[in-house]
Specification:
Elements: H1 9-17, E1 18-23, H2 28-40, E2 45-49, H3 57-63, H4 67-71, E3 74-76, H5 79-83, E4 88-92, E5 103-104, H6 106-117, E6 122-126, H7 135-139, E7 143-145, H8 158-173, H9 187-203, H10 212-226, H11 230-252
Parallel strand pairs: 1-2, 1-6, 2-3, 4-6, 4-7, 5-7
Length: 263
Amino acid sequence: MPNRVEFTEPFQLIRRNLHFILVEPESPGNVGSVARALKTTGFEKLILVNPCPLDTEQAKKMAHRSYDIIEQAAIVPTFNEALHSMRLVVATTMRKRHFKFPFFSPREIARKLISTALKHPVAIVFGREHAGLSNRELLQCHLHSTITTATQNPALNLAQAVMIYAHVFFMEMNQAPAEYEYNPASQYELEKFYEHLLASLKMVHFVPRDSLDDFISRFRRLIGRSMAEQRDIRLLHKLLQIFETRIHDLEARPDEPEQRNIY
């Protein structure tokens, strides 16, 4: 029989803020197994994006006394809606993409999540059984993680992957929390900055070697890895605003000598 572990006080806070998001799960049995994995590791927050039918005998059987996790799950129609209130989002993937994001192990991800999850909603995202997450969905996440395996085929199924992360999180997050408390930017705040950056680049007629979308993706990679806080994003907005104001001033007075502006 497995040993039961008493939850620490920090973990009680973390388990209310850590969400497991399943994007378009296709098998009721997999969702049931995920619910069982979450229940046995002390987690309870499940978000389902456009899922398969869940009121099935297969889901109930595989959940095994954990079907209440499914009954209480938040069901949303789109990926954007699932991320709306999250301050830090981790994408899981088994395939390497051309974005060249750094990949962190489940243990590294758990350690990065701890301080944020004490006070803010965070999420780890799992993709479709047959195709995983799309490139666009990966770009909307701050950090990226993968599970190291001995072989690529056969790959872990959805419930197995969730169980590995949930158990590692459970063990890591029942340790003492980090002293510094992050106040990370929300997904909405990050997207507004990327929009601002794109508008500023177009304003100066910047043409990258590849494309503006790929250029913005590099900033997503940088900022996602930095776990930017709200004040960091405000600072970046201010920096863009300083340059925009200076450009407007120069365009309004093209023949005047250059003056130094202090902001």
